[in-house]
Amino acid sequence: MPKGGVNAPVPVAPEATPAVDPRLIVRQEGVKGYIGEFRRRLSSGELGSLPVVLALVIIWAVFGSLNSTFLSAQNLSNLSQQIVGTGMIAIGVVFVLLLGEIDLSVGSVSGLCAAIFAVMNVTHGVNEWVALLSALVGGAIVGFIQGFFFAKVGVPAFVVTLAGNLAWNGLMLQILGASGTVNLSGDDIVSRLYTTIYGQAIAAYAVALVAVVLYVAGAVYDANRRRQAGVPYRPPTDIALRTIVLAIVAFLAAYVLNQYKGLPLALLIFLIFIIVLDFVLRRTSYGRQIFALGGNIEGARRSGINISWIRISVFMICSTMAAVGGLFLAAQIQSASQTSGGGNLLMNSIAAAVIGGTSLFGGRGSTWSALLGALVIGSIQSGMNIEGLSNAIQFMITGAVLLAAVVVDSLSRRTQRAAGRA
């Protein structure tokens, strides 16, 4: 019997307060809401690209203060071309890292595919387009073989790709033959893709304008679609703010490039790859399956995702992008040789993806990480070359930056777990 008699009212449990999506609060509170959301994301470890952007600003400020040549239009334009080869490879590495795996063969694969193109086109006189396609298909086949052993046979990706690093390097030496070096003609398709620069000022500004327009169109379309579905969406003020920031960056970059020679075609191709593959990752069911598999493999398996296919296809993408990067690197030095794909290319490619913000633990990252990471590494190398510092110093600093990126990633994941977001 309730305390106080038969007619005493029975206490009623208070109703649970429904959870409110933070994005709704942001829309209601305006600027104050955005500041609060920013603080919430920082406190919960959701740092995004903020650390690498700050690092890039600091690097540019330091080297710019040491030598004004670093921030000159000529140096920045050259830098935008020099990062393309490594950046292309890093895009493929991003896909593998999203699964929580690693590919140690990308350097050898890039050299192998460059050798395939050079030998077919220069030595045997095969049509340049056929040679180019053969090199790309060769990269895809390598990825399929490695992905098969990993996904179907169960050999760890580390072991498979480490063996591949040796095997594909040996195959490259076999293809190059006794001479060991095949010089490109300089008029082939690969060389033209790398060396072509659009000197008309309108070209760079047109690309910047198209980028801004496409972003606005995509953002508005996505907001309308989400609003009709009754889920949180970006408010017009948010879209406008992001558009302004993008426009400033895009048109400033176009202005700087036009102060030297103009828009490099290689940079444009690099950006197209980033945008298209970012769309694949974030706007397709295939991309969502990659994130799901990297975040929780058991949950992905129970949801019906074809894990073997996703793994094989991701390694195929990685090796194909290694082939693309290897072709641009060959065009940069105008040859394919025994040293192609060697040196610190492997480490720089992986470091670019990690430094740019892709997690080594899987499930978090973006193709834009390749651009940001390649810019950081390329800027360090360019600044130190201008200062006349040795390769030893460059390696140590790049290693320290890589370690710092991994530490930030680890601390971010720990903070997210503590906040219940991981």
Automatic annotation (TrEMBL):
GO terms for cellular component: plasma membrane. It holds the Pfam family BPD_transp_2. InterPro entries: ABC_transp_permease. It comes from the Bacteria. The keyword Nucleotidyltransferase does not apply. Its main location: membrane. The chain crosses the membrane at residues 47-67, 79-99, 106-123, 129-150, 157-177, 197-218, 239-257, 263-281, 309-333, 345-361, 368-386, 392-411. GO terms for molecular function: transmembrane transporter activity. It is found in: Cell membrane. It is a multi-pass membrane protein. Keywords: Cell inner membrane, Cell membrane, Membrane, Sugar transport, Transmembrane, Transmembrane helix, Transport. The keyword Metal-binding does not apply. Part of the binding-protein-dependent transport system for D-xylose. Probably responsible for the translocation of the substrate across the membrane. This is Xylose transport system permease protein XylH. It comes from Kitasatospora atroaurantiaca.
